[in-house]
Amino acid sequence: MVPKAELHCHIEGAASPDLVLSQARKYGVDTSDFLRDGAYHWYDFTSFLAAYDAAANLFRSEEDYALLAEDYLTGLSREGAVYSEIFTSPDHAERAGLSRMAYTNALGEGIERARAATGIEGRIIITGVRHFGAGAVEDAARFTAACGHRLVTGFGMAGDERFGNMRDYENAFEIAREAGLGLTVHAGEFGGWESVEAALNHIRPARIGHGVRAIENPDLVRRLAEEGVVLEVCPVSNIVLKVFPDYASHPLPALLGAGCRVTLNSDDPPHFHTSLGHEYQVAREHFGLDDATLRSLTRTAIEAAFVDETTRTRLL
Ligand code: ADE
Ligand code: ZN
User: Fold this and answer.
1) 4-315: what fold?
2) One Pfam match, by short name (predicted)?
3) What's the gap in Å between 10 CA and the centre of ligand 2?
4) Cβ neighbours for 146, distance < 8 A, ≥ 6 positions apart
């Protein structure tokens, strides 16, 4: 099996329908709006974000979150993953009634349990939610900078890219940069190439979540390659959310061919009927990547991981 590593997966978006249903029974909540017949239901990006919020709202205690992280990383390890960074969202936990620190500690506990059982190494990237506004994202950055958790190594921003301007979030990312955290930001998914350029100019992240719509501007693709910015590409997510109409139009092979540093990721796996293993399979079948190239994508992910050098060397 080709070894795998994942840099871009939203932990609330990784909750399996079975786990969400058992949480719904625990809290006596009806899920039929967003989860029916054992599968998530939504029809566009906005309704996907609503389904994501509804699922997240069913994780309310420390044990709920520990189980979520343990369940996800244990399954990932079975697919051949040796490393996983999970995107976490303390804003969602607070809305569900749990403090940000209790939430972060609980996810850390789940990661430790999965590591003890399988050997998979995990880290936490705390994210702010763009459409909650610049103030909320700054609060998330301040919390990340101060939280002191051993497994928290990065800061990012997810959410609706159509909301606000990149420059509104500069302060948040400055706070995180000054704290020595790795930086990643969603751009070039529902925003065009201009969004990727704005991320490079205003945020200066080491990595970009998606970034695929940079393909609309060849000069920008050259810049990404020259600056070595790593793209967290999520092919199945892009097709299911209709960022591109089909795999033949997906730019992953062109970005790779242009010398960009590309990684494979699952984003919100059960929402998109995918998994990290499936993303590697899609890259093999639809993009024609051979095992040597797939191994090199894993290597890129480990090189770009927000992890200490001792662990990186062990993983490489
Ligand atoms: N949050 C969870 N999944 C996301 C995605 N694909 N884009 C932006 N924000 C997200
Ligand atoms: Zn994402």
Assistant:
1) TIM Barrel (3.20.20)
2) A_deaminase
3) 6
4) 179
Chain length of the chain: 316
- In terms of C-beta density within 10 A (0-12 exposed, 13-18 middle, 19 or more buried), how is residue 10 classed? buried
The Å distance, Cα 280 to ligand 1 centre, comes to: 20
Q: Which two tokens stand for residue 41?
A: 């239901």
CB 175 within 8 A of CB 143: no
Q: Could you give phi then psi for residue 129, rounded to 5 degrees?
A: -105, 115
Pocket test for ligand 1, best of 267, 274, 279 (most atoms within 8 A of CB): 267
Task: Please confirm, yes or no, whether 161 is among the known catalytic residues.
Answer: no
Using alpha carbons only, how large is the chain's radius of gyration in Å? 18
Q: Which residue has the tokens 């000054």?
A: 178
Residue nearest ligand 1's atom 9 by CA: 159
Residues 95 and 212: their CA atoms lie apart, in Å, by 31
CA 158 / ligand 1 centre spacing (Å): 6
Name the closest ligand to CA 11. 1
List, chain by chain if needed, residues with CB within 6 Å of any ligand 1 atom.
10, 13, 52, 158-159, 186, 189, 237, 267-268
Neighbours of ion ligand 2 (CB under 5 A): 267
**Structure tokens, 235:** 């092919």
Which atom in ligand 1 lies closest to the alpha carbon of residue 10? 2
pTM above 0.95, yes or no: yes
Q: Where are the domains of the chain?
A: 4-315
CA-nearest residue, atom 2 of ligand 1: 10
